[in-house]
Design a protein that fits this description.
The complex is a heterodimer of chains A (about 130) and B (about 210).
Chain A: H1 4-13, E1 19-20, E2 23-24, H2 29-43, H3 49-65, H4 75-89, H5 95-111
Antiparallel strand pairs in A: 1-2
Helix pairs in contact in A: 2-4, 3-4
Chain B: H1 3-7, H2 22-36, H3 42-51, H4 61-70, H5 72-80, H6 82-86, E1 99-103, E2 108-113, H7 122-125, H8 130-133, H9 135-140, H10 145-151, E3 161-166, E4 172-176, H11 188-194, H12 197-201
Parallel strand pairs in B: 1-4, 2-3
Helix pairs in contact in B: 4-5, 4-11
Classes of the chains: A mainly alpha (about 130), B alpha/beta (about 210).
Amino acid sequence: MTAIDPARRALRANPGLPADSDGPVFAAPWEAQAFAMALALHEKGVFDWAEWASMLGETIKAAQAAGDPDTGDTYYRHWLTTLERMLTEKEVSTPADLTACRNAWERAAARTPHGQPIELRTEDFKA
Amino acid sequence: MTAHDAHDHHGHDHEEASELSETELRVRAIQTILVEKGYTDAAAVDAIVEAYETKIGPHIGARIVARAWTDPEFRQALLTDASKAAAPFGYQGKIGDHLVVVENTPKRHNMVVCTLCSCYPWDVLGLPPVWYKSFAYRSRAVKEPRAVLAEFGVTVPSDTAIHVWDSTAEVRYMVLPERPSGTEGWTEEQLAALVTRDSMVGTDVLRVRGNIPA
């Protein structure tokens, strides 16, 4: 699988990543998605792993200063926050756009009956 | 992984609408923006996630089964209230609500499907396999379970009833497979190593193959 080699490089750069002897492991699907998106951005040359590791380190430090229990369960929450910060820093997006899109997904979920795919529509972006 | 799969394993019980957790909302927002701006496409993210299919979720089902085989009290508690009984095995001591464990016996073979979508107890079994989400499995499991099982290489004796359980938003089923003969005196760890994911969905019947696992 072609995804494995970039993942190994990501793992070398981020020794805190939850992993077993084969590579990364995830507690939930969203964690794998967050991991995959960082991988995709890195492949596109948006950031290098040293930059990522340094920003992730700052994010974790800030969270710990704010009382994060640091049990290891929260690693991907920090990963996700780092992803958002990186998008802003690299001017891929803005916090306002990210929030608008998050809210749109919330509206989309609320109008979608269980069992059907949740899909975004233009109207979801209108408050 | 499609948008569909990600939402249907989460807590929106007792509600008709779907619900996404805060982290899921943020993940989807990022993905939408990245796709829109051409940094990635949904298929690329799916491909990476699928590469890790077996690495997602806690995969604690086998340990739960092994405990049920060796501890009759636990077995009873599990069959009575699986979410509660299995909680100590779960991530941060929790298992999603409404897990129901159904027990295979010589008289009854249980099999699980989600005809509507792909509801699956991922917090005990990890991500669902591709075939579980396929239209073929979803449409045929209820109508012709024996034929479907045969395709998995499983023959259920004709005097064994087959019960197909259709998962919903409210109830996620897991099968407690029969303990295979020839495993007397095995430790819980040895037993757990024998339990396949498919056996907990009801598309595999366990037997001892070769040597006792270390």
